[in-house]
User: What shape does this take?
Amino acid sequence: MIMEKCLVVKLLMSNEKQNAFEKNNNQGFSLLELVVILTIISFLTFIYIPSLGKTIEKQNLINAARIMTVNLREARQLAISEERNITVLFRRQRVPQEPNSYVIRYGPTETYKKIFIKSGISLVKTTFTLETLTFNTIGNCNAGTVILETPNGGKMYVIVDSVGRVRTSDVPPL
Assistant: This one.
């Protein structure tokens, strides 16, 4: 008997809640609710936007280092397959002719490929003698590092060892 009364009370309460929900459902959102939601969204957006810019800058830096790595590996392979020395000339930001670029050459005058580094990324330094990397006919080369940098100080290193292996790192070589 008590169980039946409890069940009847629960059914009546659930019907009242359902009727109240149906009435409120037709009204939509109040102005206050919309203002609160828009305030929360705008607050989160202002927090997220600055970090998004840094993330994009970092990805552009990583991408520029990877593109350079691919091109240097291509130059090495070209030296081996063509059985001739291939030179890569790096042009830093301060160089007046075609700054922030590098050129892959068959010799002193014959250009194979010219690559410009993406805007916002600077080729700040190389450790190669005369900023020139040369692969010989078996793929060996003068070892060195290229340092790429963002305006906010992020750095990536493209490292070439004496046997011609090319790798990228965010840690400077020893």
Observations:
- The longest strand covers residues 86-91.
- Helices lie at 2-25, 31-82.
- The first helix runs from residue 2 to 25.
